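## retry 2 of 3
previous attempt timed out at serialization; input unchanged, resubmitting
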Amino acid sequence: MFPHRPVLACALIASLWGPAAQVSPAVAQGETTTSAPQLVLDLQGFSGLVTSLSFSARGDLLAAAGGKVVRIWNIESGQLIATLRGETRRTPFGNCYAVAFSPDGRELLVGIDDYSEAGSIRVYQTSDLGEIAQLVAGHRAPVKRLAFTRDGRYMASAGENGKIIVWNWPARRAVGAVEPRDPNQPLYHVFSIPSADPLLLVNEAAGPSVISLETARRLSPGDPIPESLRSWLTTNSKVRFPHGAAPASLSLQLDQGGWLAAGLGKEGGADHYWAASFLADAIEPRATYRNHRYVITATALSADGTLAASADVLGEVHVWDTLSGASRHVFRSLGRPVYRAALDAAGKRLALGSEPHAAADWARNRFADLQWTFDLATRAVRPGAAGDYPQEVSGLGEKALDVAYANDLFFLTYSSR
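## retry succeeded, writing output
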């Protein structure tokens, strides 16, 4: 009999496309475990929603968070240089929601799902990404947003409950906290430090507001704000976004004369997924990027404003030029979707199909021909699927093939009943 063996379907398929997929022990970095190491087939990219992006201050690195993983790419070479893994259990605990490089480039912060006193902000040293250098206590809820001032003196973090903590970052000391205006809707659609001034711009259900990081308080309407921010807030209501759609994501570098927006528009009965760069006071895009295949969920601008990064629900991370809109890199998982899976008559092989039929030819549990075979005894994947694979059979005797869902991913599981 086979013990319970969860298998990520797209991970199986990824191994068919050559040696780029990496196999490594999935022991949580910075943590200890008494259980046996797990074998992980690293797909070199995300297979689901990416929640946060951050460029390093020099613009040479890009970090992205999604699921329980943070990935870091070298922008010049386009190579994946590090994959940070934490908690591996199939619960939200340990999910990575936010990333931010410190302005001096020495640290990478990761906001995670954790309710413990230990804290939900991980700190990595960029010189040694192999372990967690520090956990910062303060939030007793998952941290969803992170932002640094340009000089690194202040850092702002927002928990899932809407509580914003302002930090004197060099001292690792909380300056104060700001509560959400509506505790029943504590999400921040915008969480950005738009210029060199120590001011945080947030947009929540109750509308936009500005928070002073020096005093950790929300500014009143009559309080002074920088002219660049005042001008942008005035102009923003007149901006003509692509397809007339309001943006779902914003990244601001007003001190560099630009900003970034992304959203979903509908035109001619079709969905259009767009990201666009703007000059600070412009109402028309300087460049529009349209290469995403699904909803954009995160954006980031490089410190000098010349590069943009955008990521989506499918896990794709795109890097592009803010002046021309030309693509620089597209970082994708090596995984492939599975449109059909079946056990052979003996229950010893699992066959998979990754190229779908046209929609008109779909039938129940038959959306593709079987193309590849995974031998359950040798753990080998081979092209072809000769033999008898009953269409509706998902279990034989004490063995069953099931589908499970966790952390925005679907899993094929083959286990004893």
